[in-house]
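Example record

One chain of 288 residues, shown exactly as stored in the release files.
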Amino acid sequence: MEKFSTTDFNRLFPNDDACLEWIFNNRWPDGVTCVKCQQVTTHHRIHGRPCYACDSCLTQTYPMVGTIFEDTHLPLRTWFYGFSQMAVTKCGISARQLGRDLGIRPNTALRIWKQIRSILIENDGQLLGKVEIDETYIGGKRQGKRGRGAEGKTIVMGMIERGGRARAKVVPDVKARTLLPEIEANVLKDAVVYTDDLLSYNRVPQMGYVHKTVAHSLGQYVLAKDIHTNSVEGFWSQLKRSIDGTYHHVTPEHLQGYVNEYAFRYSHRKDEQPMFWTMLDQVIRKAS
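Predicted structure tokens for this chain:
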């Protein structure tokens, strides 16, 4: 993956106008269809306002409407710089650190941080190929047993394409009635599903999947070189290190946001373009 430096950012986005121009050009790469003229027309920027006007009828188009930037009172460049700071590390940064980097108040930084993370969600198409599925337990302040059934912890279900995308979701329990609908919603029926020997997965073959199991309960972790859940176990390890090292503690009600962000980073870890562009592209994809 290529790097996107501060020098690159300052060169491409020296001011708010450059940021607005990027949004305009990427929201409508084939030109804007004027609602009044009912055809693609040339538009020009209106000086001093975050909008463009049709050259023929002067109908105005506002690029930020429908995006996370709508109604913001902050400079648009501050938002873009926030993206660059959140993209610069594999583990992400805290809202407090983002505020220090941007030179803004903690509450304002928290809003930017939450808004950016809110669009780092991808549910485009079901997972395919070889898909590993597992659950993990995160957080918890009370002392107690480890593993499944651990006290005071939040359960997260993960689904990982080997060498590909990741999906993860906070779930209330590990019962079949909870886990199996998530598999059906997120995994293509042609996929080969790999799990451990949790009883809740016993009905996976009846759902139409090829199902291969490794017996973790018997101390078995790899079978026939192909049957394992090492990819999803690696995902959990990296996620937990990220939370422990960057955020230290995550409350259950906010955990899904952290999980979404890390799953997004994992899914795009092999992109050729810098993570900054991948994250910024989400603004366009999520625009209403």
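Notes: The first strand starts at residue 32 and ends at 34.
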